Structure formats: structure tokens, C-alpha cells
User: Fold this.
Amino acid sequence: MRHQIMSMLCEVATTLGERDKYDALPQIAALKQLFMEPETIGASKLAETMTTANFPLLMVTTLSRKLFDQYQTKKGSWKDYTYPDTAPDFRDVERYRVTRPGTLYQRGEKGESEATSITESMIHYGVAEFSRQFDISWRVIVHDDLGFIRKVISEMVDAAVMFED
Assistant:
């Protein structure tokens, strides 16, 4: 676990160093010393040094990246008992259905079967179009070093699924 945290922090420090144009090697060396050689520093100094106040941006960025996938939207179960239907265009359509016949009853010896019935029903519906757009400039895409804009598409898909539910 210690190695994973150290590698995440070093990765983020490198990314932030490249973005902000500063040398991240001293930070990375200090992180490696703290994580990989805690016995040479002493427990009290390690406990005092390893707080989020010392690396607030680094810790927030790292945690946000790693915990993002845990907050995915749960899909609705209604698709398990429904089926999609089609319409040729945007005009309203009518669909006719027949109900299921009644349940079976036990018949005694030489007894007659009881009659059941079915009824018909009509469903009337139409197609509606829902949409949204997200405007960004080419400059935003080029300067997106954290990859947030690339995640916008999946976020819009999740929003559409939540709307559908």
C-alpha cells in the first residue's frame, strides 16, 4: 500500500511540475525518502511530516483521481423487465396488446375446465427528442493536462442514463 501511495504522489508531482514548469525532483526525492526509508527519519518526524497540509494540492489531486471511479452511477433495474420498441418517425404510434389468460385451477375428477378470457388494450405513444451540448474551445482541450475534458463524454453518458432512469 505504501508503494502505491508513493507512486501516485510521484506521478502527480511530475505532472504538476511539467504543467507549472518547475523541477519536481526534490519533492519526489523527499517523498521517496519518507515512504521508503521511514526508519532513517524517525517515527515522530514521519508523523509530523506526512500531513495533507504539507502537500495539499498534491494530496487532493491524487485522491480525486484515484477515488473518482468509486462514485459511478448505479444503473436502474427497470430494463430487466421492459423491452425497447421502435417507431418509424416522430409521429405518434399505436401498439395493440392482448392480456395474458387467467390462471389455471384444479379440476376434479370428471370435472369441466373453467373458461378464462383475454382482453385487448391499446398503447398510444410518441417519440420525443432530448439533448444537451457542452461547448469547449480547442485551447481547453490542448491545455487539459489532467485529462478532465476527456472524462466529460462519460459524464454526459452517465447524466443521460440518470435522466432515462
About this structure: The longest strand covers residues 93-98. Residues 2-20 form the longest helix (19 residues). The mean pLDDT is 76.
